[in-house]
Design brief:
Elements lengths: L10 E5 L6 H14 L7 H6 L3 E6 L4 E9 L2 H11 L8 E8 L8 H11 L5 E6 L3 H9 L3 E8 L7 E7 L3
Parallel strand pairs: 4-5
Antiparallel strand pairs: 1-2, 2-3, 3-4, 5-7, 6-7
Length: about 170
């Protein structure tokens, strides 16, 4: 999926952690952390345990990331309780979406989301900040629907979160 914006080719890659080098995983983790919206404890294990990792490179470095993460029952119950939506049928969570600032407004988040969903056949959900209109546009364009009640973030008490769902069936 090349993108020839401004003369540089941007390519979306969809992989699992086993097929990535330590250097690639280090770059991936660095970008997830730059997003500032994840619990850092155990992050590398969660990244390596994801169903699929997506990233965009400009030829020399990663400039955007995303994943379909594996779910734990505890996490599903927690999000279901906070949002008020039953999530029993959901098998993955779209997350770790981050695009370097100089690469934003090029539909890269949408392209990563589409690449990940093309490789995943089960229903997934995503949680986002309520004020992140860019990700809301990308999710809506990919067929996600906003559901449930908003709730206060436990990591950053100054922001509210919301739930989006996608079901390919």
């Amino acid at each position: 999926m090349p993108d020839h914006t401004n003369g540089s080719e941007l390519t979306v890659h969809i992989r699992n952690a086993l097929s990535m080098s330590k250097q690639d995983l280090d770059q991936y983790e660095t970008l997830v952390l730059k997003g500032g919206e994840v619990d850092v404890q155990g992050l590398r294990q969660r990244i390596e345990g994801a169903s699929f990792l997506g990233f965009v490179s400009d030829g020399s470095r990663m400039v955007a990331v995303g994943a379909v993460k594996r779910l734990t029952q505890h996490h599903v119950r927690e999000i279901a309780d906070k949002s008020g939506l039953n999530l029993e049928t959901y098998r993955g969570e779209l997350g770790y979406l981050y695009v370097e600032s100089e690469y934003r407004k090029r539909h890269i988040c949408y392209r990563i989301t589409e690449g990940l969903l093309d490789n995943y056949a089960d229903p997934v959900f995503a949680t986002t900040r309520t004020d992140n209109t860019a990700i809301h546009r990308a999710l809506g364009k990919s067929g996600f629907i906003r559901h449930g009640s908003d709730w206060r973030s436990e990591l950053r008490s100054s922001i509210d979160l919301c739930l989006w769902t996608w079901d390919p069936r």
